[in-house]
Amino acid sequence: MLLRPKTGLGLAVLLTACGQTVLPMPDATTDASNPMDARDTGSLPDRVATDGPTIDRGVLPDVATMDSAPDALPDAEPDVVSMPDSAPDALPDALPDALPDVASMPDSTPDAALDGAVGCALPTQPALAEPTAAMPTIVMGSWSASSASSTISSYGCTSFGNGDNHIYPLTITARTTLQFVLTADTGVLANPMLAIRRACASSAMELVCDLDSGPGNGAATRVTLDPGTYYVIADEYATSASLVRGGAYTLTVSIPNEAPNAACAGATPWMAGTAAAGSTNGGGTNDRSCNPTTTTGPDVFFRYTLPANTRSVITGTPLGMPAWRPYLRVRDDCAMATCLAVGSALSAGSTATATIENRANVPRTFIVSMSSYELGTGGAFTLTDALTMLPPVPDNAVCATATPLPLIANLTMQTTVGAIETRSSSTCAAGVATGGPLSYYTMTIPPGRTVAVTATPAPTFDPTIRIFAGCTPTTCGAYRNSFGVGVPEQSVYRNATAADQTIIIAVGSATAGATGTFDLSARLLPAASSNTTCAAARALDPMTPALAQNQADATEVNGSMCEPTATGNVLYYSLAIPAGQTAIVTATPYSTSADAVLRVVDSCMSATCVASANASFGGGAEQVVVQNTTMATRNVILTLGSRTATTTGVFDLVTRFITAPSNATCGSATTLAAGAPLAMQDTGSALDRRSTTCVSGSTGGALLYYSVTVPAGAAARVRVTPTGTFDPTIRVFQTCMPTSCTSYRNAVSAGVLEEAVWRNTTMMDQTYIVAVGGVGATESGVFSIAYDNPPDPYTIVRTMTAACEDMTGATVLAISGDDSSTGAPIALPFTFTYFGDSATHWGASTNGLMQLFSSAAGATTSVYSNTDLNTPDSSIPGGVAVFWDDLSVTAPANVRHLTIGAMGSRRFILEWNNVTPLAVAETMRFQIKLSEGSNVIEFHYCANAGTPRTTGDSASMGLVNIAGSRSIGAAFNSAGTATAGNVIRFIPR
After folding, report:
1. Considering only CA atoms, which of 180, 252, 208, 199 is closest in space to residue 19?
2. 245 phi-psi bin (left φ>0, alpha ψ -120 to 50, beta other)
């Protein structure tokens, strides 16, 4: 038994000390020969050992340990620790000690470890036995579900270790590599954390800490420890005490049996074309050189030799059970801190692959390491490889051996196949990925001259051109990648110096890994343009494009004429347009920095423009269209300028003459009669475009125009059926100079019918303009077009007989506040026919809007900005707008639903109860009723405050079909529509 101290204070110190273990009991009688066993009579002071200033405070002496000398006679019982006096022996004890004091020994552990233990906030668990190679140490424990008074401060691994701390002392007698694995038992939700410290309460003395490197979400680490006492902390990860879950866990400490190739220096030789095998259980300390932020299991290493000009796909396959997730890494040599390739399996039991290449003409050796993705898992594995021969490396695959590009010759059958070097997106190609490998060329440009380089690709290759001032550039002198697969690319570079300049031209692809063949040529542009004044204008000919027009040679500016924001200097051109023809002139820049502006005037003396183009920004083509509707030739002047004086560039000017369709302009729109479709309509020769009118962010292709007359109050429908892969758009205007569309449609993909539906809500017949074009700026195609006046799918009946249902027992939706919706669709209690479609699901928002869906797919919107539903609103497909406005649902308000009635004649009721318009302190109550069988929809307005806002002066009422392409409106921003007692009934036709 332990000796009882003279007061309880000394025992309290002992019991709170981390790492203390119970020592043997003392003799029942004293040894007369041992002077240290004499009873304390007050004449001798206690013998104590001191630790120095770290823990001594001069109040209590340290606890005595073992005898300092052996007993003269054998002990009848082993010694035990004695407790010190509670006060110094300056005065004799009133009574002799019940048992003798025991002699002390020097401290058995270093002060640093012991002092850390005494500073620990928690008692420790039983000490861990030191494992052996044959016998791991395994302990099982259980965390409390509460972290109250169970965590230590200053946790060094993470600030989120709020779980129950269990602290295990571990004494190591010789330098040893140990593996620690901490896992939560099956079914336990705890997230284990593991730390090892020299002092349990000091994060500064933390050697290692881990959260997720073990099996599952367990913790694991492998570390080499010197002799001494350590503290193993088993903790739970939790961001707060409320997330601590507790539960049983297992802590395993083992000495790994390392294989001969557990270190990179001992890597096992492996020849390409053969298989290798091993086990990660014999791996060494995990190799973090390639991914320093990723902790994996122990690695085993192989020295892999790959033949010349060969690609290898290495596959690591895990074997055995339980299944584990392999991690494969390839480096150049043991000293490399980065990987050439990394392969990580997606899941336990699946393979990991890594691809490497040897493009040298001699064999090359790599270091391949295999490990498990999580420390504490792993096992046997096999390594295999799949080899393919690489194409030979071109002579100009590196900048230093660039091929000379003469000005007077065309280099044919050039290739990037086999090239090895790439340039990152920060060099020249902003916004482009690293791209494909490059082939290099070099040429010398005379002073002050400009060269145009053209790469003409094979049909399957999409080339890029980059021009550098040298082999180690930080930026490009020029870059070009404006066109698609099989289309030539041109780039222009000017030598602005007074001496010859040698440049580097790199041809590759914008797509990573893409290679191909091409022809490459270069030509010097004229030293200076002569058409710098209107009197010297160069004649444009559709048979001969004006190539490489250098706008930097211009000396005059057009000022504010036509395009007041464009201030660059201009070059002049003359154009003779034949009678009845239309001229289209396109300016295509050679570089992405060039920004063309085209203007057309009737003569050199004109102060106003016939036409202009200034829509595209840097790198985009500009196109201007001029019609000659007379019976004689029309002569005009065209100028080529730039947006600013600093955005000069080189351009190709291409001119073509066409005979435009009669409806190529809005003013000559073709009349489209109801029931009389027009076939074989072709936008290929159309002229006009509508920048962003109706189609935000897209100019769209050229348009053909049609006019339709819609009777008063009638619905109108235009259907466009494309031929082939044409993707048409439909825009409906009220005038030829619109600021917005009456209707717009581009809902489906290429080759699919588009349908625009709207309503003439006036009391008179109205004529509308319908414009049909392509989606892309250059897209054209063939289509047929038809117009009709479809009957309304519903009859609207309005009454003053509201019968709002009692909603006792209704289900309240989890939506509230401003702009909230149910999100995923909810199943209807019965199938409901809506605009002829079967609706099976529904959703609702706080903004007085229900939506019907044909399946569980899709999502309910919370859009609050209402529109006139006489024109379909595709933003609310399936919309049932009982009071579509910006509303707020704040307690006690709610949105709730209820199903009543017998099978076959049930009614589904959705109610907005006590809701308010946003920022208006007046409540409303209204209901939607869907009737099974009859498919009638009713809006019932139960109560409101009588103000314009609560009666509908900013709300929409109506229906939109599930596709969002058809609708019927009952009211739009009309006060009084939702007055209490009103009903709007929609009866299917």
Report:
1. 199
2. alpha
As a whole number of Å, the end-to-end CA separation of the chain is 98
Which of 492, 619, 643 is closest to 569 using CA atoms?
Answer: 643
| pLDDT for res 332 | 92
pLDDT in tens, 152-169: 655 555 555 667 788 999
DSSP state of 14: H
The pLDDT assigned to 863 comes to 93
- How large is the C-alpha radius of gyration of the chain? 43
Helix (H) / strand (E) element for 113: namely: helix 111-118
Edge-to-edge order in the sheet of strand 268-271: 268-271, 300-306, 364-372, 326-331, 341-344
CA distance 142 to 184: 9
Strands (E), 199-285: 206-210, 219-225, 228-236, 247-254, 268-271, 276-279
d(CA 712, CA 764): 5
Give every CB contact of residue 601 below 8 A, 6+ residues apart in sequence: 561, 608, 609, 610, 636, 637, 639
Which of 405, 440, 404 is CA-nearest to residue 422?
440
Structure tokens at 569: 């200097």
Question: How many C-beta atoms surround the C-beta of residue 785 within 10 A?
Answer: 22
DSSP string of 903-929, one letter each residue: TTS-EEEEEEEEEEETT----EEEEEE
Distance CA 64, CA 341 (A): 60
Mean pLDDT score of the chain: 82
Q: In angstroms, what CA-CA distances link 675 with 97, 624, 717, 752?
A: 121, 36, 11, 21
pLDDT of residue 30: 38
Distance of CA 889 to the CA centre of its chain: 33
Tokens of 847: 């903004």
Separation CA 580–CA 659 (nearest Å): 7
d(CA 556, CA 570): 6
Is residue 419 classed as helix, strand or coil in its secondary structure?
A: coil
Buried b (16+ CB within 10 A) or exposed e, 234-243: bbbbbeeeeb
Determine contact, residues 192/375, Cβ cutoff 8 Å: no
Q: Which of 971, 892, 960, 957 is nearest to 926 (CA)?
A: 957
For residue 970, CA distances in Å to 793, 960, 987 come to 13, 11, 13
Name the residue with tokens 């694995």.
181
d(CA 454, CA 974): 64
Amino acid code (one letter) for 922: E
CB atoms within 10 A of CB 799: 11
What confidence tier does 620 reach under pLDDT thresholds 50, 70, 90?
A: confident
> Rounded to whole angstroms, how far apart are CA atoms 454 and 439?
14
Q: Tell me how many helices (H) and strands (E) the chain has.
A: 2, 60
Q: What is the pLDDT of residue 201?
A: 75
Q: Kindly list the distances between the CA atom of residue 132 and the CA atoms of 16, 137, 199, 229, 251, in Å, as whole numbers in the listed order.
A: 30, 8, 24, 16, 16
Q: What are phi and psi of 621, to 5 degrees?
A: -80, 150
Burial (CB < 10 A; 0-12, 13-18, 19+), residue 340, is middle
pLDDT score of 756 more than 50: yes
Other Cβ atoms within 10 Å of 680 Cβ, number:
8
CB atoms within 10 A of CB 416: 25
Q: 747: pLDDT confidence band, cut at 50, 70 and 90?
A: confident
Report d(CA 939, CA 979) in Å as an integer.
Answer: 12
Q: Which of 231, 227, 254 is nearest to 155 (CA)?
A: 231
Q: What is the DSSP letter of 593?
A: T
Please count the other Cβ atoms lying within 10 Å of the Cβ belonging to residue 395. 11
What is the C-alpha to C-alpha distance for residues 185 and 247, in angstroms, rounded to an integer? 8
